[in-house]
Amino acid sequence: MRTRIKICGLTREADVATACAAGADAVGFVCYPSSPRHVAPQRLRALARELGPFTVPVLLFVNAAPDLVQAARDLVPTAVLQFQGDELEPECARYGAPYVRAVRMAEGVDLLDCERSFPSAAALLLDTPSEAYGGSGRPFDWSRIPARRSMRVILAGGLNSDNVMRAVQAVRPYAVDVSSGVEEAPGIKSATRIRDFVDAVRRADQRDPQ
Asked: Which whole number is the average pLDDT over 144-166?
């Protein structure tokens, strides 16, 4: 099994190129104006031009109006959509595009219930709860993720090159998602940290091929 890697919160062309060259499977662009990593629509096309031919763009939304989602899709038509707010399944599935639904892993959240609520999702992204929408930069208790699950899981929340090997070996997720863990400042990525993160994931895969 090869763990996929998503580098999220990219705002600069150079960082997109670095992520692709390092071997990222996907890169995320935050289409949420309240985020410090927000990418304005007019920037999306320029950033997407730096994508490698086999790197998937992901557009992240929080309770966005349908016309805004569609406008972003028109700019990056190959993108997977990621919904990080309070969207219900019909609101996520209405665009006919593959989508990822974020789940804030608060105490008492049942992941299997979430699977039943979003059967059309391509994957569920598991993140640490925070007061605001989006990541908190902190990990949650991975032991709360059931080993038996029917949907692909993307693990997020406070990952970095120091802890991602343990995370991969503990959870065996389909993919891992990192943002602040490879940054110098919000939206400003470190090429060294990106490469170190990718290398750590690959080492985890080699240690535990099951």
From this structure: 95
| 6 burial via Cβ count (<10 Å: 0-12, 13-18, 19+) | buried
- Per-residue model confidence as pLDDT tens digits over 35-75: 999 999 999 999 999 999 999 999 999 999 999 999 999 99
User: Against a cut of 0.90, is the pTM above it?
Assistant: yes
Tell me the catalytic residues.
8, 127
Distance, in Å, from the CA atom of 146 to the CA atom of 132, rounded to the nearest integer, reads 26
Question: What are the Cα distances from residue 72, in Å, to 33, 58, 66, 96, 115?
Answer: 13, 11, 10, 14, 27
As a whole number of angstroms, the distance between CA 135 and CA 82 comes to 13
CA distances from 65 to 50, 61, 89, 120, 184 (A): 27, 9, 15, 20, 31
Domain that holds residue 59: 4-207
3-state percent helix, strand, coil for the chain, nearest multiple of 5: 35, 20, 45
Per-residue pLDDT tens over the stretch 94-106: 999 999 999 999 8
Cα atoms found within 13 Å of the Cα of residue 210, Cβ hemisphere only = 1
| Torsion over CA: 65, 151, 113, 135 (sign) | negative
Domain count, the chain: 1
CATH of the domain at 139: 3.20.20.70
Which residues, listed in sequence order, are joined to residue 101 by a DSSP beta bridge? 83, 124
